[in-house]
Amino acid sequence: MCGDGILMEEFITQQEITKQYDIAAALKGETAGKRACVITFGCQQNEHDSQRIAGALQLCGYELTDDSSLADMIIINTCAIREHAEVRALSEAGQFKGRKQQNRSIKIGVCGCMAQQAHRREQIYKSYPYVDFIFGTDMHHRLPEIVQTVLNSKKRVSFITDKPHNEFGVISEGMPVCRDSKYKAWVPVMYGCNNFCTYCVVPYARGHERSRNSADVLAEVKGLVEQGYKDITLLGQNVNSYNGGCDFATLLTQCASFDGEYRMRFMTSHPKDASSALIDAIAQNEKIAKHFHLPVQSGSNRILKLMNRKYTREQYLEKAFEIKQKNPDISLTTDIIIGFPTETDEDFADTMSLVKQVGFDMIYTFIYSPRVGTVAAKMEGQIPKEVSNQRFKALSDMENDLAQELNYKFIGKKMRVLSDGISKNGTYCGRCTQNKIVNFDKPIPAGEFADVLIETVGSYQLNGKII
Predict the structure, then answer these.
(1) How far is residue 81's CA from residue 445's CA, in Å, rounded to a whole number?
(2) Structural domains of the chain, ranges and CATH numbers in brackets
(3) Sign of the CA dihedral with 440 first, then 445, 447, and 451 last
């Protein structure tokens, strides 16, 4: 059984949480009849952060809306992992200039990883004067206080920690979460990162690694299962380094021990910390999804060293083969960065050969994007865009063929599928334990399990009929 962990200064006290609830209660008279909209960019952690933001806004008396044109309070939750995500977020903020000119009472805020970066904050201050407030990634628990300050201030306000990146970051329990699904849920188990990959801003935007107490995680998961949630994902920048009273394999096993039909997932893993105990846990527990996302980033040892990934190609292959050997039906997915500084044709060929050796069910491929403040952004040998684009296409074309070949083994098999209802293109679909999209022939309510006999496959989907 997991232990309780050790409370540290980064844990927000119950007194502080009670204070935020009191502020929220006092705000309800002022916010009655008003609406709030949260716009999200980025990863699953950002999605969960937005659910916490939405929960706090509801606590303050706002009615939530997905239509920003109806909102009196608009919060843009940003991502900084790639330049494209930052540009999209800034473009979104720019669209509200006209609304602000028409109605000065509308409040516009920016938060998230991009807001945590000094150069982006300066850009917002200078170029987006209609943005009323900014708050950092460790300020979500103070949102009632932030809202109160914004509503009562005639000046722009900022809630950003002044601590260095290796010291900032908190853990808060007890604030509400407004989940956007009745059967799928994100559950963060740890925050921040200590790895300092040379291309990545996460340690600077999210702070140092810190883990929730296992008792709090288990209580949250148990509550979700009792509420009928069927697909629960444990989140962390590097879940393998979880240290909240037990190791991650033990935590995952405990989360998969409650009564009822549901699946436990997790992301994201760092290869250097993916333990044999975790691989064994997946093999031994049917409630743990047979899907492992293990980012490799490059197949070249030279590039891996420049990236500060702390493992070699050979070590990654050993781990990938162990995963597949112990879990024959597992879906193994990865991230790969194309065009890292100084990447040669030979380095890229190493990546292509690793992909062939492993046999990934899906690759999330990204063209390298320099991030201000990272080591890689200052490296000589930045790769021309046209070269990166050519390599991106070559890898994508190869993976499309490899993924379809891997899916052939599912033809004729019965798959247990959690329905997502009707997709945007009008088909009935869901996901199996391998996290693959499964299309089927009859309507099944979203959030219910069904058995599907697989008849045909594509590169990234399975097709069949309800049994």
Answers:
(1) 35
(2) 14-159 (3.40.50.12160), 184-407 (3.80.30.20), 411-466 (2.40.50.140)
(3) negative
Distance CA 53, CA 339 (A): 36
* Structure token digits, residue 323: 């995963």
How far apart are alpha carbons 277 and 274 in whole angstroms?
A: 8
How would residue 455 be classed by pLDDT, with cut points 50, 70 and 90?
Answer: very high
* Pair 323, 330: CB distance under 8 Å: yes
* 168, pLDDT greater than 90: no
Percent of the chain surpassing pLDDT 70: 98
Q: Provide the mean pLDDT of the chain.
A: 94
What's the pLDDT score for residue 39? 97
The pLDDT tens digits for 173-187 are: 999 999 999 999 999
DSSP annotation of 374: S
End-to-end CA distance of the chain: 38
- Residues 122-147, mean pLDDT to the nearest whole number: 94
Per-position DSSP letters for 237-266, written without gaps between them: TTGGG--SSS-HHHHHHHHT-SSSS-EEEE
| Tokens 């096993």 sit on residue | 253
CA distance 73 to 36: 5
Strand arrangement of the beta sheet that strand 291-293 belongs to: 291-293, 331-338, 362-367
Question: What does the block give as tokens for 121?
Answer: 């904050």
What is the structure's pLDDT at 353?
Answer: 98
What DSSP assignment string belongs to 146-162? Answer: HHHHHHH-SS-EEE---
Q: Is the peptide bond before 268 cis (omega within 30 degrees of 0)?
A: yes
Task: With H, G, I as helix, E, B as strand and everything else as coil, classify residue 369.
Answer: coil
Q: What angle do CA 233, 238, 241 make, to 5 degrees?
A: 105
Which phi and psi angles does 26 have, rounded to 5°?
A: -70, -25
Q: What is the DSSP letter of 343?
A: -
> How far, in Å, CA of 209 to CA of 198, rounded?
17
Angle at the Cα of 54 from the Cα atoms of 429 and 169, rounded to 5 degrees: 105
Alpha helices in 60-192 (DSSP H): 83-94, 97-102, 118-127, 143-152
Write down the pLDDT at residue 229: 98
CA 426/CA 444 separation, integer angstroms: 13
